Amino acid sequence: MANVSVYNMEGSEVSKMDLNDKVFAVNVNEHLIHMAVTLQLANKRQGTQKAKTRSEVRGGGKKPWKQKGTGHARQGSIRAPQWKGGGVVFAPVPRDYSFKMNKKEKANAMKSALTSRVNEEKFLVMESLKFDEIKTKKMVSVLDALKVKKALVILDGEDNANVALSARNIEGVKAITTNTINVYDILKYETVIITKSAVSKIEEVYA
Predict the structure, then answer these.
(1) How far is CA 123 from the centre of its chain?
(2) Quick check: 118 and 39 in contact, CB under 8 A?
């Protein structure tokens, strides 16, 4: 069973915590992690690129010259692809880049990403993380105490609005709740900082 240290907001170790092996000590499946990241990035794509084909370009209704007797190659329209201002051959059209993964694949990708962070010792558990007011300096002091610069802060979603807002203006730091965690963010940031209550919620969902 994976065992990690639990820290307070001053950066001191206060206890140890056992993590559920079904979530934080699985065999890391790099293929599923890659699929999950690709899915998230693909689903963000707007797919709005568009170019006109010869049937969509304005003009070109009249044959530029007669078929025979001019010495020119035969042409049917000045909007054919070989003409300047003509249409594009196989022009790109708006499309949907998104694809799907089944529930088991998504869950295994998430568990693999969390396990990789635990294995790399980049998974810091906080006893609690709550602020009485919105104060960026407080969040900076917590990060300094933990000796972390770039981090994904995972909260349990209860009474943590001040923490999320305090972290909002810090470059390289992102605060999310357990119901919005994703593989891409877990891998993007150098360190995962998570509260004990958030760990329990994740274990309830994925164990």
Answers:
(1) 18
(2) no
Q: pLDDT tens-digit profile of 141-157?
A: 999 999 998 999 999 87
Q: Which residues are CB-neighbours of 84 under 8 A, at least 6 positions away? A: none
CA angle 194, 198, 200 (to 5 degrees): 125
Distance CA 113, CA 15 (A): 24
pLDDT of residue 160: 76
Report the share of the chain in percent with pLDDT over 90: 68
Query: Rounded to whole angstroms, what are the CA distances from 54 to 89, 141, 205?
Result: 8, 61, 53
Q: How does pLDDT run across 107-129, given as a tens digit for each residue?
A: 999 999 999 999 999 999 999 88
Cβ atoms within 10 A of the Cβ of 127, count? 16
Element of type H or E holding 4? strand 3-7
Whole-prediction pTM:
0.78
Per-residue confidence (pLDDT) for residue 143, from 0 to 100: 92
Q: Cα-Cα-Cα-Cα dihedral of 46, 52, 57, 63, to 10°?
A: -170
DSSP string, 85-132: T-PPTT------------HHHHHHHHHHHHHHHHHTT-EEEES----S
